[in-house]
């Protein structure tokens, strides 16, 4: 593919030369269009050399049209409304809030809420008549159960799983450098551990999927020695086994062949140029008991570092079977990441994205209750991912049972994603999700890493302010009665009333009626449908 920027600037230069000759030879009137071309040429050079806007670096001159449309966005808002996975309007200010925070701009709006507070499904936090001061330093979450010898202090908001391959090298570099600057964790995604994850020294959660990329044998099986060698990197603070993903539970990840460059092939240990499809299931376990014992083996291979797994919750009966296996083997993961069905992906069948998997609210509450009910909650921390973008999102998820949160889409916004939705085509216009070096160069690592850091710090600060307004200073103090939902025009219920919340050991003593059949059928030696 030709360098379109060079071709465009070349055409402008040729046009300018032709107009200049015409002005000298034929008529002085030709100086007017020549002046216009000169201005466009200078603007194009400025666009290509500046570092703040990836769109302008890839699309000099014409890229300014996008910013013109952004300047009249409030007037266009009624015509261009993003939607949540369930059809409700996506908060109008989410993307603009991320952009503003990434740029260091206070994300304040005039005139108050534009949400219909009397609409079914409207949710709100309960403010306190005795607000608390906002903590000077954000709290962290210690990840590490009784079998972990090298616990890790996890930030309240971290970079969620996105692989090198799905993302460009520059995007990975920017995310990791931002994580190092802000002191939060960067999940590698299942695409392997690359030098771009390691170059800037940010803390890593190394994710291993069903393809075992970066620690696989020639036939695609798990390779223990290679895993141990890479897990020994000082930057690798935790290791995570991916069971399923919110946007496509039940199928493996997909990386189109056009994005499998020689470098990607080397990192993933796969053939170059061929579409890479991860298997839908793991080879290393086939029963709940084998899953938990493999988690223990991973922790040993990782020299005692925190080890856990990620899943989009499906069958409650199957998750209870895993809990029974933990009890039987006296082995627990150090963390479980719950990915909601509303989570994003670079490539997935539309039917899977729209119709499979449990939304994050129900998934979190299910996992939290199962661990509390089996007396295991104090040994396992819970992370939450799936459209986490604001401080309000963080507080909501921690109130529902999470200890910390991860964000993917919002972090992509912070590094410059404009939601062109070309992730699977290798033609991302801002260099975030492409392996085309000409497009990827538009993403300036220094500028975008600072934006990632600023976004994370401002969002955590927002969450702490919301909690302080609710009368709490630490996530541990959040309770279900502090979040309310409108059911209809005349009915409001708190989360304490809407959902069951178990007492420690309740499933072991006397399972509630709604859970009794699943608890009785849960088998630690097979995944019962």
TrEMBL record:
UniProt xrefs under InterPro entries: Aldolase_TIM, GltB, Glu_synthdom, YerD
Transmembrane regions listed in the UniProt entry: 30-49
Keyword field: Membrane, Transmembrane, Transmembrane helix
An MF annotation (GO) of this entry: glutamate synthase activity
Coiled-coil annotated spans: none
Domain Glutamate synthase residue range list: 157-472
CDD domains with a match to the protein in the record: GltS_FMN
Transmembrane recorded as keyword: yes
UniProt cross-references to Pfam families, sorted A to Z: Glu_synthase
Family: Belongs to the glutamate synthase family.
Name of the featured protein: FMN-binding glutamate synthase family protein
